[in-house]
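dumping these here so i dont lose them again. two proteins, back to back, each one seq then structure tokens. dont judge the mess
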Amino acid sequence: MPDIGWMELLVIGVVALIVVGPKDLPVMFRRLGQFTGRIRAMARDFQRAMDEAADESGMSELNRDLRKAAKYTRNPAKAGRDALKDAFGDIDPTKFPEGSHTRAAAEKRNAEAKAAREKADTLRAARDDRAEEGAPASPAAAAAQGAPAPAQPRPASAVGETAAERPRTGTEGS
């Protein structure tokens, strides 16, 4: 649609007043309004017919599915997390009979999930406390601030283990 401002509308009105005349100007604007109303009604009918045809052919479901899939193209990791959450979401142990193996497995899984959430909350709170105190939140942040990094444990193979004491992995030459 053209971008018409107030000055352009004023110029069009003055030109219409001069060309059509003050007597016939209200009649012309009324007819113009009726014409644009008919055009809008036809466009609305056309849009409604297209929407009904799309609903009948199943295009609306396809469009919904494509939009749902498109939201994951921006963040594939979120798509994976959502799929895992759908597949292995919270399992309600009360759905299974008392004493069954399935119920025991569901109770065990819920207990492990609860423990993991509590541990994550504890670590998050500790990290936030360190951040409030001004201490770096991670060893990488400490190194960035110039603090010495904590000593990393050395692998067992580097501590004096001989080749004969190391387990064979199958990749060594024979």
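---- next one ----
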Amino acid sequence: MEEKYTWRPIFKELSRKLLDYRDHQDELLNMGSKALHNANMKDFSDLHMIDPFTFFGAFMRSGAVPNRLHILRDIKDEMGLVSEMPTDLAGLPTLNPMQAWFCFPGSTVEEITNFWNLFEDTFNLDLTDEESRSRFISDYHKIYTMKGIHSRITSGLFWVRPDLLWPSSSIDPFSLINFDPFYLCFAH
């Protein structure tokens, strides 16, 4: 029987490694562009800043799994990740290729910063720590107020913490502004 969810170790390692690129976004843009170019896909050449969710979105677009794994392999090699390459991407939400980027050429520094803050808060989230929860909730709400993000951010949160959060494309993102986002998560 084929093993499933083999992507979890490399996604965790990639999430941890991406935090090192917060202040080195030019390197992240170059690395992502190279991997996308090798797969004959639109690269990040239009961007001058990048957030980690957009970086993940590069290979989490809907499409053939072998193509997505090819991009991930290039990223793994370029970053020096040591986790085994996954043999599947079972259970992972994908994005519409036309909406795979969270940031755009016109994104502001504040918007990119908000994405990085939420990414870091998500990676370090501890449900037993009130300060950690509060920081996550605050940054989560900032992202939800951004035009065009809507519920796809829940997919991005899942990529970072599949052990704690899950994606939901059927929830009205505007109704979540008034709710605690932990309504959408669970702890093992």
